[in-house]
Task: structure prediction
Amino acid sequence: MCGIVSYIGKKDPVPILLKGLRRLEYRGYDSSGIALLNEKTLHCIKRAGKVSDLESLIDDSPINGYCGIGHTRWATHGEPNDINSHPHLDHTKKIALVHNGIIENYDAIKEVLKSRGIPFTSDTDSEVLVQLISELYYNSNQKLSFEDAVRAALQEVVGAYGIVVLCEDEPGTMIAARMGSPLVLGVGEGEFLIGSDASPIVQYTRNVIYLDDNELVIINDDNYSISKIDSKNIVTKTLTRIDLTIEEIEKGEYPHFMLKEIHDQRHSISDTMRGRFNLNDGTTQLGGISDYFSNILLASRIYITACGTSWHAGLIGKHLIEEYARIPVHVEYASEFRYRNVIIDSNTILIAISQSGETADTLAAIRKAKELGAITLGICNVVGSTISRETDAGIFTHTGPEIGVASTKAFTAQLTILIMLALKLGRKKNVSKKRGKNLIRALRHIDQDVVSILKISHEVKEVAKHTYEADNFLYLGRGINFPIALEGALKLKEISYIHAEGYPAAEMKHGPIALIDKNMPVVCIAPQDESFSKILANIEEVKARKGIIITITDKINYSLKPLSDYILIIPNTHKHVFPITCSIILQMLAYELAVFRDCEIDQPRNLAKSVTVE
Ligand code: G6P
Result:
């Protein structure tokens, strides 16, 4: 949520900042801007809209400097317009700041500053922070240095922030600080970058330092130092090497990141599983949680917490863990969990699932569970992310960077990990080697299954062509596939703006059936497992109300064909692997529907990839 990139070094910062902003656009795309320091002055240029709009502005009136800060915004306080865009300047126009997060007490501080005659131009909470730094720097009786003014201002604000600040009167100095919103420092040869994630940095250096909460970094010409915000004692941090490739964060030949990431699943699920099977023993190896494995086995209950798509993975995780390991699992939205009187003790395990590893509510839920004595485990994709560092242990999904705002390959990677975890626990309990081997065989076949699914994209397109004008869609599934119905509906809402609901197929009669008529496409998830006859009956109910039936199944079946308006047949697989393959065809369907509706697939309105505010 909001992207930050900053550069200080010997190169021209403008192309570096613009490229960085393009790489970060998935974090927010309401507006963007950059501020540059040259020998004498600070220049700021910003505008509402996409980074391409900013680029045109800079093409028309080029600016230069030797260091700069950039920002792409996902609006919280103040509508997305030119004035509310970042960077924000103080009223002397000598200090510039980019901010990711929310300053909660901005109103109170603003009132005080206004009473001292300081004029404000924007509606944002971020401007309050830069004005406060300015007031403390230029007008405090204590004659604070710029660094001390930044520290003092940060100690007055309440909320979450990742910031970078520049000051015309302190040329050659860049200050960044973190409290709640991620920041990564890139340490190159005679140059430094700061990003809200590593994607704008990786092209210039692979050596990074992840800042922790309450840390501040000062970059002065060729050096950097990290300390706590509220003390000048140096904090020693180790450099981490990131193994991200440029290809992974570019679209290549694909028109959209989402399509690229759907196709990546030909190999990404295997990447997630690599080195983690023990076929002979019908089990899996998950080194990241080995220290806590016996605690999980003996746990009285497991909570799974997450947001969005990751929460849907959690619902499937519950099904799997209860099935294989017979441990009770509760799945909660992190935003609810964090404020609820949850029942947790030292026999409770909390599993937090997060692609980004930065979602604010999920992080807050982890902190709460820790405080209450639970062991916390993370299932994250981004190595070095806050959640992966704050949990006691965890498992990385290793699916590569996911840029498309609608999660695809990260979801199937999360499901893969949950299957592997459930199996590993189950094998220590009563699950037989044979059952384990069967599941592993199905998982190992998944690359070929995905290839087969991608091959029927023309059929998916055909369904989309005939249904893209619908105002509503219903998705029905039973058992382990009910969360897949929820996820299919979420994908559709996110990128095509069609209202969609996922429902347990049998529950349909208790409400949504009232909505079904000849204009309502109903996606029916109908694998030929033990639930088949039940779902078939539910499909009959839809048919009787003239709904448009789109069936997803895994074997040709003669009772399904006459009932379905469209039928998409995906490879037959293990019933616990089917949610993975089924979700891929639903991702394709959402994608094709969004293409027909001419939507901005990688940057859907109002959404952000990583939600780092509450
Ligand atoms: C945002 C994204 C979703 C994602 C959710 C949770 O809403 O748009 O795609 O599922 O955040 O993100 P996380 O990184 O914690 O999985």
About this structure: The longest helix spans residues 409-428. The domain at 251-444 is CATH 3.40.50.10490 (Rossmann fold). The CA atoms of residues 521 and 548 lie 4 Å apart. The two ends are 11 Å apart (CA to CA).
